[in-house]
Amino acid sequence: MKELLNGVRQPVNRRSFMKKGLATAGTATVGAALLTNGSELLAEQNSEEHRGHLTRGDAALLRFAAAAEILETDFWVQYNELAGVQDNEVPGGSGNPEYQEKFEAIDDDFPQYIHDNTDDEFTHQNFLNAYLVSKGADPVDLEQFRTLPGSTATGSSGKLRLTNLMELTLDTSWYTRYRIDNKNPDLDPNFVFPQAQPDLAKGKFTAIPRTDDDLTPDDHLQAIVNTAMWHMPTIEQGGNSLYPSMAQRASSVEVLRILISIGPTETMHFQTWSDLAGDTPAITDPTNGLTFVDLNSPPFGGETFTTSLIMPEPCPFLSRKLPVVSIIRPTETEGVAMGALKFLTDMGLFIGQSPAFFELMKRLATDADHARRGVDH
Fold first, then answer.
1. 3-state class of 168 per DSSP?
2. How much is the pTM?
3. Is the pLDDT of residue 238 over 70?
């Protein structure tokens, strides 16, 4: 899958892309997935996309955000079906008692948190697509890529999915990135922040019970729950950086307002999950050796790892000549959409997806990364 993401930072001619289509799916497939209200070629021929008062750059930013929210909604639904609250706001599934009880042992309100995060993502995807349509621009529809099998454990709806929660490789260096006070990934791109849970970066692990066989032994199920609890903040810290990074490329004040209004809700999600991740029990999965460490005990502990330190430490920002400040990081805007796509791909979230899916996501990311403030291109 990584190969599918290579070589896309260079501009790609829209007309050429639409004309050539995808080798595996054809032009009609791309058009059906990305464009539900007409030809994208119209956008190239007008200074404002479909004459709806959005520049193509702003429309591209919102389309990439909408695609990201659709994918995020998909995996949060999977969590909610098994461990959240199933109701009219977030229907589907019937809960898995053994899996859910492990979350409730950490926090009684965990199922409600999962439900509310899922509901938020639904509203994000729906609003972004509706706004695009209201401006005469093309929304995003990924339904043709809903082909991945999900969990068949008790409580799952058994529906096909867009994302894969059963083969995750997690980069938990965000945990130390927000605690180390003399480094900023925007100023120190080559600095390697330590992993909070090193084993999660060394294999492919499931965050949901794949079948009822995963409900035992007890430490195996706990390891699955721990993986989920680290996956949740890992995802949300990505959105935490994505929105302010994309906002710097918006031309319209209204589009800027949308991005800086949705972004902080991702930060609220991240803050909740990052706090709870510190409560995961230190155990070893007897089936695969996956080990979760105690972050409060040697060789961990200290300001870099202590779980009670949940606020972002001040760090250098913009220039080391300026005083340190508590900020979201990173917020570098160059290549942010492709970076986000690579982050999700490396995580294993799209294992099993088709080449056509990756081509479409590359197209959306490339368009977003080519957006420039005040430039209609």
1. strand
2. 0.88
3. yes
> Residue 23: its pLDDT value, please?
35
Q: What is the DSSP letter of 50?
A: G
End-to-end CA distance of the chain: 29
Of 344, 300, 333, 330, which is closest to residue 177 (Cα–Cα)? 330
Say how far apart CA 131 and CA 63 lie, in whole Å.
10
pLDDT at 12: 40
The CA distance from 62 to 138, in Å, is 10
Is residue 122 predicted with pLDDT exceeding 80?
Answer: yes
Secondary structure of residue 342 in the 3-state scheme: helix
Domain ranges of the chain: 2-369
Among 347, 342, 348, CA closest to 365: 342
Instruction: Collapse the DSSP code of 25 into the 3-class scheme (helix H, G, I; strand E, B; otherwise coil) and give the result.
Output: coil
Q: Look up residue 296 and give its amino acid.
A: N
Q: DSSP assignment, residue 375? A: B
How far apart CA 367 and CA 371 sit, in angstroms, is: 7
User: Does residue 33 contact residue 142 with C-beta atoms inside 8 Å?
Assistant: yes
What span, in angstroms and rounded, lies between the C-alpha atoms of 173 and 170? 9
Interatomic CA distance for residues 263 and 341, integer angstroms = 17
Q: For residue 375, what pLDDT is reported?
A: 65
21-42 pLDDT, tens digit per residue, is: 333 333 334 444 444 433 343 3
What is the model's pLDDT at position 376?
60
83 Cβ contact partners less than 8 Å away, ≥ 6 residues apart: 95, 96, 99, 100, 103, 110, 111, 114, 228
Task: Please enumerate in sequence order all residues whose Cβ is within 8 A of that of 54, keeping only pairs 6 or more positions apart, or say none.
Answer: 48, 62, 132, 135, 136, 137, 252, 255
Scanning the chain, the segments in alpha helix (DSSP H) are: 14-20, 26-34, 41-45, 56-83, 97-106, 110-134, 174-177, 218-247, 253-277, 302-305, 336-346, 355-369
